Amino acid sequence: MGFTRLRTYQFRNLGDGETDLSAPRVFLVGRNGQGKSNLLEALYLLSYGGSFRTHRDQELSRIGTDAMALEGSFEAPHGSYAVDIRFQEGRKTIRLDGNLLQDRRDMVSLIPSVVFRHDDMAFVDGPPEMQRWFVDQTLSMDQPLYIDDMRRYRRILRNRNQVIRDRQYDMLPVYDQQLAEQGLQLQRRRREVLSAFNEVFAREFSEIARLPRGLAVEYRPSWREMDSVPEVTAHLEKHRAREEALRTTTSGPHRDRILFRYGDTPGESVDFLTMASTGQVRLVALILRVAQARFYTARTGRRPVLLLDDVLLELDQERRERFVSRLPESDQQVFTFLPEEPYHGYRREDTLVYSVVDGILQRQ
């Protein structure tokens, strides 16, 4: 079923009150800056406890206030949940069915959501950290405990960098061992998940893009051709002088690369970004999200909520139709549209449609 109810209080520019969401499709129609994306952000927060826009919780409250609250109800075949998120006095609290959560990691597998945004283009043509972020999010949705693995690696990396900056070089062998052990575990998981994800992505690319050749997501780990702790520690020791000069750790999963290779055979494939138009990059970003949702369902047997923020606006009619037809089975789809978009063509008998003006939702 998906989200059935949303109550907001001082969240962004949204009006205070309750919104009925008990439909498989919900359309939010309004001009830019009216609050459509804010509602999607609220649903995403109720799914994962964090925003897709900011890491600063204080930015979530309405301008001129320092507190906000969200309440949501969610129904799915595996259970029903009530989530309450509050930010006040500089602190965020999350309650699930009335119980205080100590770690928002515990929410990841309960109310899965996949958000489609214009900024997703950075997963294709943005900095390497954005591509790694997409891979790690895909992996975390499938395996929530991977979040703990990432946290451990980041803690080790942070401590190792501090040792380098403090010139405590005699302590580096200890951190080399820890970095190698934890880093290789991340590397193995990324390689495994991308191998499986590529099969789903290639199929969706073929169906939606309809280009002459295929597209593959290629994983290039920083520790290439290294699969054992001794190999990695030897590599770290070999590059010790460079790290001391730069005062940072120069290799590891935090330096992994994700490339997009266009072509049907590895030997003849080329870097997609060298020949792709902006429109093609945008389309691939959308296909990544479609594949992410399908991959999640294939691995877990569960269907996510799809949050689609003005994603059809920049597609021509033919690609728009193909994209909508390839949207995976989901518990719910929440779209945002501009008033002039042909959203009526996607409206079904059971679709809820709201006009959004100055943060106020009015049912059509």
Description:
This protein has a six-stranded antiparallel sheet with strand order 2-1-4-5-6-7, with helices on one face. It has two domains: 1-112 and 302-363, Rossmann fold; 119-301, Up-down Bundle (Glutathione S-transferase Yfyf (Class Pi), Chain A, domain 2), CATH 1.20.1050. The protein has helices at 36-48, 122-125, 128-142, 146-165, 172-209, 229-238, 240-246, 278-300, 317-325; strands spanning 2-9, 17-20, 25-29, 68-76, 79-88, 91-96, 99-100, 113-116, 215-220, 257-262, 270-271, 305-309, 332-337, 351-357, 360-363. By secondary structure, it is α/β, with parallel strands linked by helices. Helix 4 (146-165) crosses helix 5, helix 5 (172-209) packs across helix 6 and helix 5 (172-209) crosses helix 8. The chain has nine helices and 15 strands.
Mean of residue pLDDT values: 95
Low-confidence stretches: none
Q: What is the number of domains?
A: 2
CA-based shape? globular
Radius of gyration: 22 Å
Please give the CATH architecture of the largest domain.
Up-down Bundle
CATH superfamily of the largest domain: RecF/RecN/SMC, N-terminal domain
Given the structure, what is the number of helices? 9
Strand segment count = 15
Helix/strand class: alpha/beta
> What is the top-level CATH class of the largest domain?
Mainly Alpha
Query: Assembly type of the shown chains?
Result: single chain
